[in-house]
Every structure is written in structure tokens, then in C-alpha cells.
Design goal:
Blueprint (H helix, E strand, L loop, with lengths): L1 H15 L5 E2 L2 E2 L1 H10 L2 H7 L11 E6 L2 E6 L10 H8 L13 E3 L3 E4 L5 E3 L4 H12 L11 E10 L12 E8 L2 E10 H13 L1 E4 L2 E5 L1 E6 L5 E7 L7 H13 L4 E5 L15 H6 L9 H12 L4 E8 L19 E2 L17 E2 L5 H16 L4 E5 L5 H5 L2 H9 L6 H22 L6 E5 L17 E5 L7 H7 L3 E4 L2 H4 L22 H5 L3 H7 L5 H4 L2 E8 L9 H5 L2 H11 L5 H19 L9 H5 L10
Parallel strand pairs: 7-8, 8-10, 14-15, 14-23, 15-16, 16-19, 19-20, 20-21, 21-22, 22-23
Antiparallel strand pairs: 1-2, 3-4, 5-13, 6-12, 9-10, 9-13, 11-12, 17-18
Helix pairs in contact: 5-6, 7-9, 9-10, 10-13
Length: 627
């Protein structure tokens, strides 16, 4: 502090020649007045305001009945005990999110640590070494000295493992201190499991100011209950920067969510840059700066991979395909899409702008195959989402080219006829994807739709498709899907749509899926409960639910506010689909409130605040006592 003052003094004295401003490095009111007159506002804030340290506070933390309580220093014999240290000592797993599913043995002993001094052993691959650097980066500002040495040893069988529906993400974490030395061992069959173990280790290191503390007597085993745990972000309705997308991935990784579902195209815009069909972006991007190139996407995919997250692209089709497809006639390929931007939109789509693929145009499939090839060049993961929702039959029925095509094919202009037309596209598009991918399919995902209703489900093969379920939790499609052997990803809008509960963006009042879905409702999104309520009690059928996603549709969310809508609510999904807890949200709340606070302070992930900070510091008090 005095060095700062003396440094400032030399500059001011050189300017004003007033040696009387300083007395042994102390500031006088005269100096502050001079600083103000000179316009040094930032200096005034730094040097003229009184500084407080932790030693100046009159309170501390004390563990009582497994709860850290804020108490006077007198109750801790004048010793200041930081909240992070108390949380580690007070209740086993009180800093963990999501809560582990296996054995959890965490003693009350803690040691002071400086993570930059950790020695890491047996991180053989660049991938794991990068994960280690990410881990260390979480604590780069915490520079206080630690106690003794810490060695972190990895025992990972496959550091190059690919994340898919059958991957194991299990790990074991061991921490033991003896005679001033602490040993940490992370054991896993896969890179993903080992990275999760490293994430849990980071949660067993809690920091305040410069100092960090680590639990030093730990043995836990852990693995997720569901293999698919993620968040959808729609970057077509509003464009999102690479920085924001990476910040989203940081939040997924921190809470062991393993899937970023990238809804990258829609009728509104086509920001995906197709090198084989660049006119898609020329016509479809909002501006030349609002696109995603192959280089940008590969950077994001790598960023996610070393954080244990897969990136799943979605090319929505045959509906939700409008802006970007208008160039076909100009290039001699005919209309690639119909009903594009048609009005009144209510007749032709669920929201403006409208647009659906022109299934009567054979050139469409050449274009779709090229887009698939470009996406496969950029996205290297094991899954691909082909869209498939909200087809509007009236759009096709009022398009002469399509009705003429249907007449030639003897397809009636009825519900069944339009479903036959749609299925023709589905089969051709799947064949084009397989061709583009070297004769192989991936884990193919599609939305619930008219095609997944019981009458038309025969068009789809459960050995090929996993269905992302967005209907309500009481819709009859859910039990029918598992009874027919389909794997299902839960995104039921009545629990998991993050855009709900805001004002209408067409018209007035609230938007269509109101009310707002609080984190508590998301936490209680138990698919087994919904299946049982509709008569499906067979545990083998329950296992066909492979996971869940929250969905951030972005009609009313943009680059600067979407993360506050995604987090911390998606943290609630993380524990639901990792831990499958038998207890309710009430028991989880203290951990989530604390975890959300740590994510802001330690990781810079700024979701919505759940409570005043006083409640973070006064665990267990900010609640309704009759719950």
C-alpha cells in the first residue's frame, strides 16, 4: 500500500512540486484534493479509500449440526475461519456438485495448498496435459503458500477415449496426507472419467482471497446414472460469440454436463459456413461477421473435448429451413425451400419467419449432402441431430410444385399423404448422411413430432434413431416411445425449456410455454416418475431414457444474457441426470447455492444469483421453515 502511495506521490510531486503532501507514505486530505483536481479518479478509489482485510472483520464461521454458521470471532477463540474451509470440514460432500453416486468418505481434515505447486504424474497424452492446465488455471490467482507437497497421480486406461452412448465416465478419487505430504490418485478407464475426477478434486479445493484449502482424507467412487446430460443453445435466432459459447462449455464442464447441443441453423438464419455451398451463408447469415467457420467450430469442438463435453450439431429439417436456401433458382437449381418468409405466417409455420424444404426438388438432396459433409468435417463427435419437428402441412399443400409432385407420386393430399412425403425425405436424407460419413451412421437424434406419434412411428427404426422428447411430461408419446424400444432424451417443455415464463414476443401477455421453470422444477425432472404415472413400471423400459437436456431457445435471449437464463438452472439438470437423487430439491439447495457462488467467484461463470450473498454465508437460514 505504502509503495503504491509513494509511487503516486512522485508523479504528483513532479507535477505540483508540493513536498508537504506526504508524511511517511501517508495520504493527507490535501493530497486527495489535489488528486481529485488532477482528475485521477481511479487513483483516488485505490489510495484514498480505507482498505479492509479479513483480519478486520468481526465474524468467522463455525460448524454446528453439519451447517457452517456465521458467528462472532469470540465463538472461534478469535481465529478467523474462512467459509470455504468450514464447508470442507463441516459436512462430507458439502462442496460437491453433482453429488457422487458411489461411496463418499471425506474426513474433516484439510490442508492449505497452492495448486501451482502440485506435481502431476502419468498424464501421458496432450489431451490430459491440457486438462491439467485447465485445472490449474482455476486457481491461478490463489497464490498463498501451501502446507507441504501435493502429488497428483493419474491411473487412466484410455486417454484417447471417445464419448458416446456406451462410454463409461466412472472414476475413483483418493486423497491422503501424511507427514507433510499429500497424495492424490485419480483412477478411471477413460479420459472422460479421469477429467471428472479432476473436476471433483477442484471442488474439494475451496478458496478465499489468496488462500486455498483442500480436503485431505478422501475416498470416493462416482459415475453418472445417465450417459447424455446437456444443454441446447440456439444460435440461429440470435447469434452468439465464440467467447460466450466457450463460457457455456465452461459451465457444462464444471457441473459434469457432457453435451453441448448446438442448434446452429433455423429459418431465421444460417450462420454455419458451408465451404461446399457458401451461398447458404451468403443468403442466410445476419452479417459477414455473424458466421461460424470450420476453423471456429473446430476450435470450439476441441475446447469442449478437453473439458469432457461433446458438441452435437443440429441441421434442422425438413421444417425450420428458410433463410439461406433462397439462392437455388439464381444458380439454376430451382427452389430449395418454400414458404420462405411467407405472411401471414400463422398459416404456414409456428413462428415467423416461415420456411420448409422443397421435397419435390431432387437438387435439394445434393445440397443437403454437401452440408452434411461440411458439418462432418467440422464436428467430429459420435452423434448428429437431424431436427425433424414442427412440419406444417399447409405450407406444402399451398405450394404448387409440391402438390404437383404428390399427384405424380399418387400421394393423397391428406395427413397420411404428407407423412408419406415427409418419410421419403427422411429416408433419402439418412442415406445421404450415411454416404457423406463414409458409409456409416452416427448416433442419430431427432425431435418428437408428427412422425413420432403412435400412428406414424413405424416410419422410424429404433435401432437408428434416438428421440429427443420435447412434448409435455404427460403426453402419451413418452410411454409409447419406450414401449416401442426407442432411446429417449428428455427435454419436455413443461420442465426443461429455459425460454418459458417471459413476455410474448409476438403479441402481448406471456409466451406460449409459461410459467417460468425454476431450478427446483428442473431438479425434480425424474423421467421414471413420468413413465410410472403412465403405467410403465418395467425398469428395462426406464433404462431407455438415456438422459436429458435443458433447451435455451433464443427468441428473447442474446449473447449478453443467455447464460443468466441457462445457469444455475442447468446445474440442477446436471445433478438430476448424474446422481438421479432420491431426495428432493430442498435437501440439495444449500449445495447448489454455494456451488453457484463459487462458479461466479472462482470460474467467472455468471448465472442468475439464487439468493442474497448473506444467505450463502448463512447456510440453512434462508428457507421456509414449514418445508
Amino acid at each position: 500500500y505504502n509503495q503504491l502511495v509513494l509511487g503516486i506521490s512522485s508523479g504528483i510531486n513532479a507535477e505540483y512540486g508540493d513536498k508537504s503532501l506526504f508524511l511517511d507514505g501517508s495520504l493527507t486530505l490535501q493530497f486527495c484534493d489535489k488528486v481529485m483536481k488532477a482528475g485521477f479518479i481511479a487513483v483516488l478509489l485505490l489510495a484514498c479509500l480505507p482498505a479492509l482485510s479479513l483480519a478486520d472483520f468481526a465474524w468467522s464461521y463455525k460448524c454446528s449440526d453439519s451447517v457452517c454458521q456465521r458467528v462472532s470471532l469470540a465463538e472461534t477463540n478469535g481465529e478467523y475461519i474462512p467459509l470455504p474451509k468450514c464447508r470442507l470440514q463441516c459436512k462430507a460432500g458439502g462442496t460437491l456438485w453433482p453429488y457422487p453416486t458411489g461411496d463418499v468418505r471425506i474426513g474433516s481434515n484439510v490442508v492449505a495448498v497452492r495448486v501451482s505447486d502440485f506435481k502431476f504424474v502419468a498424464a501421458r497424452s496432450e489431451r490430459l496435459q491440457e486438462a491439467v492446465e485447465i485445472f490449474k488455471g482455476h486457481f491461478k490467482t490463489n497464490t498463498a503458500a501451501g502446507e507441504g507437497s501435493v502429488k497428483v497421480q493419474f491411473q487412466i486406461s484410455d486417454e484417447s477415449s471417445v464419448l458416446d452412448m456406451s462410454s463409461t465416465e466412472a472414476y475413483q478419487l483418493y486423497i491422503q496426507s501424511h507427514a507433510g505430504s499429500t497424495t492424490v490418485v485419480i483412477t478411471s478407464l477413460t479420459f472422460q472419467g479421469g477429467r471428472h475426477g479432476l473436476e471433483t478434486l477442484s471442488q474439494l479445493i475451496q478458496c478465499e482471497e489468496d488462500a486455498c484449502y483442500m480436503a485431505s482424507d478422501v475416498l470416493l467412487t462416482d459415475e453418472p446414472k445417465y450417459p447424455w446430460r446437456g444443454v441446447l443453445l440456439d444460435t440461429s435466432r440470435n447469434y452468439f460469440s465464440v467467447e460466450t459459447i466457450k463460457n457455456l462449455i465452461d459451465g457444462l464442464s464444471a457441473s459434469k454436463l457432457n453435451t453441448f447441443h448446438w442448434h446452429i441453423t433455423d429459418t431465421h438464419s444460417f450462420p454455419f459456413y458451408s465451404k461446399r455451398r457458401p451461398r447458404m451463408t451468403e443468403w442466410g447469415a445476419y452479417s459477414p461477421s455473424q458466421i461460424y467457420t470450420e476453423e471456429m467450430i473446430k476450435d470450439i469442438v476441441h475446447y469442449a473435448d478437453v473439458r469432457g463435453v461433446r458438441v452435437v450439431p443440429e441441421l434442422d429439417a425438413p421444417a425450420h429451413s428458410g433463410n439461406g436456401y433462397q439462392w437455388g433458382e439464381e444458380d439454376g437449381l430451382g427452389k430449395l425451400a418454400v414458404c420462405v418468409n411467407r405472411d401471414p405466417w400463422e398459416k404456414y409455420c409456428v413462428e415467423p419467419p416461415c420456411g420448409q424444404m422443397n421435397l419435390a426438388n431432387p437438387n435439394l438432396y445434393e445440397v443437403v449432402e454437401d452440408i452434411y459433409r461440411d458439418m462432418l468435417d467440422s464436428f467430429t463427435g459420435s452423434a448428429f441431430h437431424i431436427g425433424g419437428d414442427e412440419v406444417n402441412f399447409n405450407c406444402w399443400n399451398t405450394t404448387e410444385e409440391i402438390t404437383k409432385y404428390m399427384d405424380e407420386k399418387n400421394m393423397p393430399r391428406t395427413e397420411h399423404g404428407f407423412m408419406e412425403l415427409w418419410n421419403e425425405y427422411q429416408e433419402k436424407a439418412l442415406a445421404r448422411f450415411k454416404k457423406a460419413n463414409g458409409g456409416k451412421l452416427k448416433d442419430m437424434i431427432l425431435w418428437t413430432s408428427h412422425m413420432t406419434e403412435p400412428e406414424f412411428l413405424h416410419y422410424l427404426d429404433p435401432a437408428v434413431y434416438t428421440v429427443q422428447y420435447w412434448e409435455s411430461s404427460t403426453n402419451k408419446q413418452l410411454p409409447n416411445l419406450v414401449n416401442q424400444g426407442f432411446k429417449v432424451i428428455m427435454s419436455n417443455y413443461d420442465d426443461l425449456y429455459l425460454d418459458c415464463g417471459f413476455g410474448a414476443w409476438v403479441g402481448e401477455g406471456n409466451n406460449w410455454c409459461s410459467p417460468y421453470k425454476g431450478w427446483q422444477k428442473i431438479y425434480m425432472n425424474d423421467p421414471k416418475k413420468y413413465l410410472k404415472a403412465q403405467g410403465v413400471t418395467d425398469p428395462a423400459k426406464h433404462k431407455l431414457i438415456v438422459g436429458g437436456e435443458t433447451a435455451m431457445w433464443t427468441e428473447q435471449a442474446g449473447d449478453r444474457n443467455a447464460l443468466t437464463k441457462i445457469f444455475p438452472r442447468s446445474y440442477a439438470l446436471a445433478e438430476r441426470y448424474w446422481s438421479d437423487p432420491s431426495t428432493g430439491w430442498f435437501e440439495a439447495e444449500p449445495r447448489l447455492v454455494y456451488f453457484n457462488s463459487v462458479m461466479e467467484k472462482q470460474r467467472g461463470i455468471y448465472g442468475n444469483s439464487l439468493k442474497p450473498e448473506w444467505c450463502v454465508q448463512s447456510q440453512g437460514i434462508c428457507k421456509l421453515n414449514n418445508l
